[in-house]
Amino acid sequence: MMIDGEYFPTGISSTEYLTAVICAFGALIAWKLVSAIFFSPLSHVPGPLVTAITPHYINFLSALNRRTVGTYSLHRRYGPIVRVSPTEVSVLSPQAIKEVYSSPHYAKYAPLYSIFTHFGAQTAFTSCTREEHGWRRKAVSEAYSLSFVLKDEVATGKVLQAVKDYLSFVESDRRVDIYNANTFYATDVVTGKIFGLEASMKTLAGNEAHRDIVLGHYARTRRTQVWMYIEFPLVMNVFEWFAFYAGKVWSLVCGEKIEDWEMVSRIQRWGWDAYMDVKSNSREGTLAGRLARLAEDGGGAEGVWDDRGVASEAMDQMLAGMDTTGDTLSFLMYQLSLPESRNVQKRLHSELLDAFPKPAEISGSSWPHSMDIQSLPHETILKVLNLPYLEAVLKETLRVYTAIPITLPRVVPPSATTDRVSGHRNGRIIEGKFIPAGTTIGTFAYGIHRDEVFAVETGRKDNLGDVDNFLPERWLINGGLEDKLTPDEMEQEKQRIRTMEARLWAFGSGARNCVGRHLSILEMKLLLSTIYSRYQTQVTPNSGVKITHNRWHQRRTFRDVLPFSGVDGVVTFTPYE
Ligand code: HEM
Question: Which prosthetic group or cofactor does it need (predicted)?
Fold first, then answer.
């Protein structure tokens, strides 16, 4: 006898129905897996099974702060092209890098770059396509050219003032939290460049309110928030949407009008006010002033610029020049302050003293031994820029501790024409593989900088352990012992160094490379030559110095490779006799 409800009207039992649903679901999943593994447009790209099936593997690595090293291990296992998710490919060969980053057709990957807009307006850095980018970059690039930076920043004392302030900072307490000191230094230089010396943040000179703004910007919570934007854009967009409408309701209740772009951070507020100040005082000698004038004239031939656009551009350059340069200096100084780098420091000090003898030994010499100057002669700056060992130390820092080690993602464009060999139309052939248009693709400096071309000793090319070591000598011909070489060996050495130089990717490449690199190199070299001609530095664990910021190893997001994890970054400066 049947009980009502045990049988469905069709005569199928509930157990059978459930089994059918489970089977259908299983078949669907099986089909999804089979199609992801065998029929996806990226199924022929090498990589582990898991990355063919789900994007969560790479997202999980990101959550653990291990995306960059994780991608690097995939390359070591699978070669120069690897599928890192069902819709993303990572490349590591020079040919692929040239194809992706030298071509104007590969747009930037918008979900990542759009996070960096300010006041609701695009910038040169955030604009994704060639059309959006070209006119913005054109408007700023002249002010960052080497000739302009040499005659402007040094002649007007913007960099020198920050170096002087750095020395006073060190003199006030020789146990220096170098993370703070270098972040402040880079901030003072870049705000001086953009808004003028008078309007610069002057954090090293003791402006506490500005120090607080800068350190607040790098606080762990804020950086976690940015990381959330990268990894969980949907959640953050919902949150943003909520915050936007909450702001609207608030403004209705309080009768205060708040524009959406006005909900900005403290540092953005500072940038907005600094820009308005430059504009109202017509400081046309500054970069922000020049851009303001362009905006007044309609923004140039191709683009439209208003106050928000210009302030956003100025803000972006300011932020781009702060932690990149500050952290590179910190990693360099910390590495040089370790006991194993004692010889590196010695060699650098000797090079500086040879190039710039002390006033007692040669009359008329002032900088770097005295800072009683307003500007440096052009020849002195060129001499600093061309010191071979200083150059080698900086290049090795940019290689091993590159400030932006992560993938810089682009989007594969459609083919210009049908590929004759494969017949494919909608995509590009990269590393011999067809990659469909719309795929996210990218490379990362951390991996590029561990290529075998950086292994110095012949016969050790398979032992990549060597490329992780900090060894400035690899950038010198025969480690600096040129006279010991035959002409043939000399030629080989020159070729080895040229190849390494071509592979160094700290500032990116192509039309989207770093516009601020000349300023950054100049400010780093001037500071380092001043410091290392006067002081020895040594790491000072348990120094008792109160760390006023989140320790540098706790900072996350863009730099997921964290050198010197666990240190507090305090270094003691001891003057040479
Ligand atoms: C050691 C210091 C620095 C490093 C390692 C560095 C690195 C980079 C890299 C790798 C890119 C390419 C980013 C991408 O394609 O997504 C870039 C772009 C950029 N950098 Fe730097 N940077 C440094 C300092 C500076 C400074 C001092 C400034 C400005 C004062 C600056 C301004 C910019 C701008 C505006 C862009 C975007 C360029 C464009 O898309 O046209 N950077 N930087």
Answer: heme
